[in-house]
Amino acid sequence: MNETPEPDDPSAAGSLLPLSRADVSPLPNRRDFLAAARARKQAMPGLVLQARRRGADEPSSSAIRLGLTCSKKVGNAVLRNRARRRLRAAAMIALPSFGKAGWDYVLIGRRDVTVARSFDDLVADVETALGRIHTPRKPRP
């Protein structure tokens, strides 16, 4: 049978959160967020993903860096924090399989959707967005 393990099951903890916070470093400053905003974007129903490959001359070029942001459009402080927590948890599940070392990722929460969307759908959104970002683009004629 293909049953999903219960979140309270200690034996399943490794499969639910395969990546710890120590494995992903945060984007340290505004300049990195702005650089990601000028790079590739992928909008999904529950979030917007911005991603960019760091240059070899930048610090920690082999690590994955993650930034999270939710504007006041998402809601009050409680809703913004909940949206960021959900995005962080979804990213920790999706990044080991679909993320690439040496890239910066910024996840942006969407109004009324990031908090209300089911967590499985939110993880699927992150995985799909990462897959699309890393798919080679077709050259323009």
UniProtKB/TrEMBL annotation:
Keyword line: Endonuclease, Hydrolase, Nuclease, RNA-binding, tRNA processing
One Pfam family recorded for the sequence: Ribonuclease_P
Start and end residues of each stretch annotated as Disordered: 1-26
A Gene Ontology BP annotation from the UniProt entry: tRNA 5'-leader removal
GO molecular function term, any single one: 3'-tRNA processing endoribonuclease activity
EC number(s) stated in the UniProt entry for this protein: 3.1.26.5
GO-annotated cellular components: ribonuclease P complex
Signal peptide (from-to): none
Catalytic activity: Endonucleolytic cleavage of RNA, removing 5'-extranucleotides from tRNA precursor
InterPro entries linked: Ribosomal_Su5_D2-typ_SF, Ribsml_uS5_D2-typ_fold_subgr, RNase_P, RNase_P_CS
Annotated HAMAP family: RNase_P
Subunit structure: Consists of a catalytic RNA component (M1 or rnpB) and a protein subunit.
Function (record text): RNaseP catalyzes the removal of the 5'-leader sequence from pre-tRNA to produce the mature 5'-terminus. It can also cleave other RNA substrates such as 4.5S RNA. The protein component plays an auxiliary but essential role in vivo by binding to the 5'-leader sequence and broadening the substrate specificity of the ribozyme.
UniProt record similarity statement: Belongs to the RnpA family.
Name used for this protein in its record: Ribonuclease P protein component
Native source organism of the sequence: Rubricella aquisinus
Gene: rnpA
